[in-house]
Amino acid sequence: MYGELTVRPFVGVLILLALGFVLPLLLPEYFLYLGNTLMMYAILALGLDLLLGWSGQFAFAHIAFFGIGIYTSALLQLRLGVPFIVGVPIAAAFAGLVGLLIAIPATRLRTVYLALATYAFAECAQWIFRAWDSVTKGSDGLRISAPDIFGYVVGTDRRAFPVMAIILALVLLSFLYLTRSKLGRELCAIRDSEHVASASGIDVKRTKVIAFVLSAVFAGLAGGTYTLFQSFVNPDSVGLAQLILVLTMVVVGGSGSIAGVLIGVVLIGLLPEFLRAAPRGLLVWQEFFYGLILVLATMFMPRGLWGLWQSLFARAKPQPAASPAAGARGPAA
Q1: Which of 49, 196, 239, 304 stands the most exposed, by the fewest C-beta atoms within 10 Å?
Q2: What burial letters (b/e) apply to 60-82, b meaning 16+ CB within 10 Å?
């Protein structure tokens, strides 16, 4: 979990980059749209997991920072002509700044009080997105023009796919480094026991604020990538349904694990596609299925699918046989 990075994560990132450039040549447009959506959700879910799975803070303002990233990057491009390559880092930084302002008072709270306070902020942010007609166009939604990256116009999902793969690869590398750093160890210590962490010399409050801000930055970055392959956004895109969806991805896949989060993103992200292929009428129940899966995973798979797989693998792994010499050694005379 900690220490220097091994070769395996870099191999996975290189495979992701290779697929990012090869798959647009092979797959139809709709499959590439699904891939772009899953990569965006991967960035968003990793940011939530940093807060929920690594530092143990049950905060639910994540979807608000996602919305801030979307609207900020879109408005910078539409109103000021700021290019995508500049606007997205600004949007992520702005989401982090708002996250800092929220984190300072919010991290004084714990458990359900923290969850309620941050959820209230998320609802307040959605109300602003809906009511500020002169800026966000309110419920009518905001049209997003195709980004231009050094002359590379991203007007289709096919052209957006390699850019999304590059961004996700950079996020994965930064997340891998972060979770194996001193800060990652401090976050895990706080998650396990704040009192023990404090007794070990960790500044609990400062570390929790840092985790909150970094989580907001990841959410803002995910919001910026939304503008790569989507041409329209309205407040419903950053509402409660999206929060439940991302939370389900983290819990079902396995919080506190990069591989688990990615598994949850793929499975839950593709669930609507499976429901479309199911008997007619099931698609309208997708939010019910999300909630049901979340409850069942919490009850029967507290460590998610990745944790369940690790447990089964550990049980199936053959144990080393006892040494014959040790078995023959008797009591001393």
Answers
A1: 196
A2: bbbbbbbbbbbbbbbbbbeeeeb
**Predicted local confidence at residue 133, as pLDDT:** 86
* Burial of 240 per CB tally in 10 Å (0-12, 13-18, 19+): middle
Q: Provide φ and ψ at 179, rounded to 5°.
A: -70, -15
Per the CB < 8 A criterion, the answer to whether 147 and 228 are in contact is: yes
Q: Where are the alpha helices (DSSP H) in the chain?
A: 7-22, 29-49, 62-80, 84-106, 111-131, 133-136, 157-179, 182-192, 194-199, 204-229, 240-253, 258-269, 271-277, 286-300, 304-316, 324-328
Tokens representing 161? 């796919």
**Of 7, 51, 5, 56, the residue nearest 180 (C-alpha):** 5
Question: What residue has token string 């002169």?
Answer: 134
- Going 23 to 36 to 85 to 48, the CA torsion angle's sign is negative
Main-chain dihedrals φ then ψ at residue 149, nearest 5 degrees: -115, 95
Q: What is the pLDDT of residue 333?
A: 38
Q: Phi and psi at residue 232, in whole multiples of 5°?
A: -155, 140
Give the whole-angstrom CA distance, residue 270 versus residue 332. Answer: 64
End-to-end Cα spacing for the chain: 46
Question: And the tokens for 154?
Answer: 């991203």
Q: Where are the domains of the chain?
A: 8-231, 239-317
Q: In the block, which residue shows the tokens 């899953």?
A: 38
pTM for the full model?
0.88
Spatial distance between the Cα atoms of 231 and 213, rounded to a whole number of angstroms: 28
Give the dihedral sign, CA 245/246/247/253: positive
CA distances from 12 to 90, 173, 259 (A): 28, 10, 11
Model confidence over 72-117: pLDDT tens digits?
999 999 888 888 899 999 999 999 999 999 998 888 887 788 888 8
